[in-house]
Amino acid sequence: MDPTVSGLSMLAGLLVLLAIGVPVAFSLGLVSMGALFVVYGPFFLETIGEQFLGGLASFGLVAVPMFILMGAAVASSPAGKDLYEALDRWLNRVPGGLVLSNLGACSIFSALSGSSPATCAAIGKMGIPEMRQRGYPPEIAAGSIAAGGTLGILIPPSVTMIVYGIATETSIGRLFLAGVGPGIMLTALFMIWTIYSCRRQGLGLTELSQRFTMRERFAALPRVLPFLAIIVAVLFVLYGGIATPSEAAGVGALFCLILVAVIYGIFSKSWKFSQMGGIFRDTLKESVMIMLIIGASELFAFALSSLFITQSIAAFIADMDVNRWVLMGIINLFLLVAGFFLPPVAVILMTAPILLPIIMGAGFDPYWFAVILTINMEIGLITPPVGLNLYVINGIAPDISLGQILRGSLPYVGCMVLGIVLLCLFPDIALFLPNLVMGPS
């Protein structure tokens, strides 16, 4: 069968399965098995176990459930509420300060959890009702948190960066460092837009009359700073060569569990030790989901290669006689469309191994490209038809329609597109820190 026909057939089958609600891992697995049957006949069964389990046979994957456990511990506690309140006290004198507090809380919480849906849920449960109570339109209240939650897959420690590193055999530590500058840049762009929009609409002016003393502001920090210290400690042992990503993730998860138990279980009595079981249950569910996608994606990649689809795509793109920036524009458009339909982990596992040699052949840095790819995935989290963050926000605020949430998040999509443009113009935004700490790649 012609590779083009084979590729289109597999794509059509995958989209049909996804459209009728089959989970991503099972959709990938079923399409892969159908393709392998065409190539090998009934003997394809001999290859399934080897390819599926081979995709999971990486010690680096141990870091994934550890970072998920770290995030689940924080998400189950009132840490998000404390973080939100602390930032509100420091930013209440700025126009739209409450929205800025939510965005800041999202950026920090996402660094702790590494999960966009968890960030949306934790900050949105407190932030959306508070913003609406103070007169903010539902579009701004919901859209800002939906967008802020996307930072969870960019700001380290990031599960998607770990998956990219394993899929492309690149340094996870360098990938984490490459995400710091762009993460700060996107947070700043979100906040700049928020200040401009709120000032133009006259929003948040009532907050200016509320004053907090410096003592009240500092009083909100003790519960927040220990969790920030964990982020710093994890990054320090990782980049100091003291521990591997898996070891750093394990220690970070342990300390998060201890802090939650001590700060909220013993001192404030706002968290019950019986909730510990829920933390491990949520960790297990999300970890198994990601592992299934990883294994199924490995099987999918093997099927693509067996039908010469991967080689044909790579050859087609490589033979395009176009400027390398035009090539990058085409790749960005492809990633953007893929992110509309598939979760970030699935897109990264299916596309990164194919695209990496192409972008390196065009003279682009693989760590810079990881950031570009991740921002494209962030856009997919707040755009239909999948738009996971949109549905999370709609679930915690059902009286706000999906259309309103989408309208509120679209300006932040523009900020992300601007961020990609800035990274293309100034790649050192992503590369300066890893090159400074770990030397040139």
Automatic annotation (TrEMBL):
InterPro entries: DctM, TRAP_DctM. The keyword Membrane applies. The chain crosses the membrane at residues 12-40, 52-79, 145-166, 172-197, 218-242, 248-267, 288-318, 330-355, 367-391, 411-433. Residues 12-428 form the TRAP C4-dicarboxylate transport system permease DctM subunit domain. It holds the Pfam family DctM. Keywords: Cell inner membrane, Cell membrane, Membrane, Transmembrane, Transmembrane helix, Transport. Its main location: membrane. It is found in: Cell inner membrane. It is a multi-pass membrane protein. GO terms for cellular component: plasma membrane. One of its GO terms (molecular function) is transmembrane transporter activity. Part of the tripartite ATP-independent periplasmic (TRAP) transport system. Belongs to the TRAP transporter large permease family. PANTHER family: C4-DICARBOXYLATE TRAP TRANSPORTER LARGE PERMEASE PROTEIN DCTM, SIALIC ACID TRAP TRANSPORTER PERMEASE PROTEIN SIAT-RELATED. The complex comprises the extracytoplasmic solute receptor protein and the two transmembrane proteins. This is TRAP transporter large permease protein.
